[in-house]
């Protein structure tokens, strides 16, 4: 909550003329916006261009931020709409879960292989979900958005969002049943 309060203060200062403070917002939200770009465009160059476009739109629209939602929700809605409008309809959404695999310090080779195999099983299962389920579950788990925020970002009614997240979790649970049982 404190971070959100800071966002609102920063936005107020920027709109009052301290435009150099916009770098604070970019620094705070650059990674999630870039991640969303990778989810939609699947390459670093397009994701980078997407991020620049989103932050330009956010900067130009700051005076219209009214604080009725969290700043992050407002920004993610701009990012989501920019991505949906910019992506070729034949391209498919790619989950943020598909980001590069990073080993954890202290992983043994055996543990690393187990984690990699589990990750691959989850990714394969995610790919089988309908795109609308993947978008909702990504926002819920990787962007820490509430159902209402996902509704605001995607335009899906809140009950549809809840249903998509519920069904996605159920499908993933079914698809991943038995993974990790063999010890």
Structural class assignment:
mainly alpha
Principal-axis shape equals globular
**Could you name the CATH class of the largest domain?**
Mainly Alpha
- CATH topology of the largest domain, by name, is Rna Polymerase Sigma Factor, Chain: A
In whole angstroms, the N-to-C terminal distance is: 42 Å
Q: Give helix and strand order, one letter per element, not per position.
A: HHHHHHHH
Please identify which CATH superfamily of the largest domain we are dealing with: RNA polymerase sigma factor, region 2, helix turn helix motif
Outline the structure in words:
- The structure is a single chain.
- With 183 residues, this protein is mostly helical.
- The protein folds into 2 domains: 1-91, RNA polymerase sigma factor, region 2, helix turn helix motif (Rna Polymerase Sigma Factor, Chain: A), CATH 1.10.1740.10; 99-183, Arc Repressor Mutant, subunit A (Orthogonal Bundle).
- Helices cover 68% and strands 0% of the residues.
- It contains 8 helices and no strands.
- It is globular.
- It starts with a helix and ends in an 8-residue tail after the last helix.
